[in-house]
Design brief:
Blueprint (H helix, E strand, L loop, with lengths): L7 H55 L3 H4 L11 H30 L3 E6 L6 E5 L22 E3 L15 E5 L20 H6 L2 E6 L2 E14 L12 H12 L2 E4 L10 E8 L5 E10 L10
Parallel strand pairs: 2-3, 4-8
Antiparallel strand pairs: 1-2, 1-5, 3-4, 5-6, 6-7, 6-9, 8-9
Helix pairs in contact: 1-3
């Protein structure tokens, strides 16, 4: 093979060309890092502002202001104290409802797509939850509808969460980013559920769909391909549920025994995973009212 000898001039040109490529790469990387930092800062700032409103809703919902409404029942001129107690409780609940409604309206001023809030203890998941008729929008927009690579947590467009009566029989699906750089914001910290110790010690998801509050108990952690059919928003028949749980057994990382019926409501959290191409980490939980689902592990 004939050896190619470059002249001094050609070598200088090549060196300048390579330097230019490296310099362009450096500037591009710097810009991308800067943009990521700005997006992260904007996300945290907005979330902190919204969190203050959400905390007021929580405080109002758990406060007891009855003594401020009617301080001393004994001073009232009535022999039927039960009537007074009933009226006091009625006024108290009415005041709470009005205060909560005011705070929800404050969130709506930021964005009417905000439908609720999700919080998981011992993770960074403490975010507003939005919904619109386009699942792709909030992949690249924050809760204030600003362009942002971190996106925000959103409910599948097909789910109907307009009132509590419609939740029965639904698989409510929430999507959130898990950044490849290891950032635990949004759904990144769901990775912790892969660990047996964390899974057994942290089984609750607090999910508000304004103005109601719900508690879900995690029963499964799965690693699936994005084409896996975990995103059906209806539970279907008992046979449909049985078939789904059987198929999920092959994909499970952690699991505790659960009983599901067509009348139950489950919550599915979906985020990216990097174990293989198009991988998804999926957390499933059951709505609970009184007590817990059976907590044995397999």
């Amino acid at each position: 093979m004939k050896k190619v000898n470059l002249s001094l001039k050609q070598k200088v040109v090549w060196r300048k060309f390579l330097f230019t490529i490296l310099l362009a790469g450096f500037f591009f990387s710097t810009i991308m890092i800067a943009r990521r930092a700005v997006d992260s800062y904007n996300t945290k700032t907005l979330n902190n502002e919204l969190s203050k409103i959400q905390e007021k809703i929580n405080v109002i919902g758990t406060s007891n202001n009855s003594n401020q409404i009617l301080d001393n029942i004994d001073d009232l001129e009535t022999k039927d104290k039960s009537i007074v107690i009933y009226e006091r409780e009625r006024i108290e609940e009415e005041n709470k409802d009005n205060e909560i409604r005011t705070q929800i309206e404050q969130l709506a001023k930021v964005n009417r797509d905000i439908k609720g809030w999700i919080r998981i203890e011992n993770t960074l998941v403490n975010y507003p939850v939005v919904q619109t008729d386009d699942n792709s929008f909030y992949l690249e927009h924050d809760a204030g509808k600003n362009k942002n690579r971190y996106g925000t947590i959103f409910i599948d467009e097909i789910n109907d969460v307009s009132n509590p009566e419609k939740l029965q029989g639904q698989n409510i699906i929430l999507y959130g980013h898990h950044m490849k750089n290891g950032d635990e914001s949004m759904f990144g910290s769901l990775e912790r559920f892969r660990e047996y110790e964390f899974f057994t010690a942290n089984d609750s998801i607090n999910f508000n769909l304004f103005p109601e509050s719900y508690k879900f108990q995690v029963f499964g952690v799965y690693l699936v391909n994005q084409d896996f059919d975990y995103r059906n928003t209806r539970l279907g028949t008992e046979l449909d549920i049985k078939n789904l749980l059987n198929r999920l057994k092959n994909e499970q990382i952690q699991f505790r025994e659960v009983t599901l019926t067509p009348n139950d409501t489950i919550l599915t959290l979906s985020t990216c995973a990097y174990d293989f191409e198009d991988a998804r980490l999926v957390i499933m939980a059951k709505l609970i009212n009184d007590g817990n689902i059976k907590g044995t592990n397999q």
